[in-house]
């Protein structure tokens, strides 16, 4: 298994409020995390780093070695980070209301577990197909699912950035958790909406299936989002499940 990630400010933002990292626990299992922060001043930047580093520290201290225990771990730990971020906003009024998306993957031998809140996405690429594994927690996605607007209308909707769930809210946050099997020579992509708002799924698939190295694929995804306008921060975390995946 190989992992590459890269984050870029894009072409229109003053600062990068995305954050990503990979952590290894006591059982030598990896956790990949990506967060897209929101809030004025430095607040979004603070929220995304708090979420990633907080989850990462808890993962490093754990000895989870398979998918059985990880779902409950995700729900509890994301709730803990939710409360910390909310409290930080209360204690620092200039950061009040800050929050972040989270999409995270716990990686095991032949499977992975995803947890997410918000509209940062996970995609699985295998056998010339790309499949979105996460469901956007956004106003426009709710409107699409209810049949009020089409996918095409959603792409240009004036409220497309309005989230229905984020980390950093009062009370409890609902976390979506799902388990997935991985195959030899497949890919898992975690990304912020700075990529998916700029680059089509067809183009993402073509880049991931190209003959470049994993680092080059990651860089090209970011480059093409910038070439398309780079209207937001862009973060790409790409995982390749190599030849050793047990079938």
UniProtKB/TrEMBL annotation:
Enzyme class: hydrolase
Pfam families xref list: PP2C_2
PPM-type phosphatase domain boundaries: 2-241
UniProt keyword NADP, yes or no: no
GO molecular function ontology, one term from the record: metal ion binding
UniProt-listed Enzyme Commission number(s): 3.1.3.16
Superkingdom of origin: Bacteria
Cofactors, names only: Mn(2+)
InterPro entries in UniProt: PP2C, PPM-type-like_dom_sf, PPM-type_phosphatase-like_dom
SUPFAM superfamilies: PP2C-like
The name this protein goes by in its record: protein-serine/threonine phosphatase
Organism: Enterococcus pallens ATCC BAA-351
């Amino acid at each position: 298994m190989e992992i590459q990630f890269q984050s870029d400010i894009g072409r229109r933002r003053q600062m990068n409020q995305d954050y990503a990292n990979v952590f290894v626990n006591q059982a030598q299992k990896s956790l990949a995390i990506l967060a897209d922060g929101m809030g004025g001043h430095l607040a979004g930047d603070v929220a995304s780093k708090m979420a990633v580093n907080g989850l990462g520290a808890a993962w490093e201290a754990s000895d989870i070695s398979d998918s059985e225990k990880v779902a409950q771990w995700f729900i509890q730990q994301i709730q803990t980070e939710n409360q910390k971020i909310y409290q930080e906003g209360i204690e620092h009024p200039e950061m009040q209301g800050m929050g972040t998306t989270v999409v995270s993957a716990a990686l095991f031998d032949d499977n992975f577990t995803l947890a997410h809140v918000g509209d940062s996405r996970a995609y699985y690429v295998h056998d010339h197909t790309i499949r979105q594994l996460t469901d956007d927690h956004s106003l426009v996605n709710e409107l699409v699912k209810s049949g009020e607007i089409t996918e095409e209308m959603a792409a240009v909707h004036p409220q497309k950035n309005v989230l229905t769930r984020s980390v950093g809210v009062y009370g409890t946050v609902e976390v979506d958790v799902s388990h997935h099997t991985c195959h030899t020579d497949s890919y898992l992509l975690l990304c912020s909406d700075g990529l998916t708002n700029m680059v089509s799924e067809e183009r993402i698939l073509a880049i991931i299936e190209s003959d470049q190295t994993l680092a080059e694929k990651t860089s090209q995804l970011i480059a093409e989002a910038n070439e398309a306008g780079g209207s937001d921060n862009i973060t790409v975390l790409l995982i390749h499940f190599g030849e050793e995946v047990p079938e």
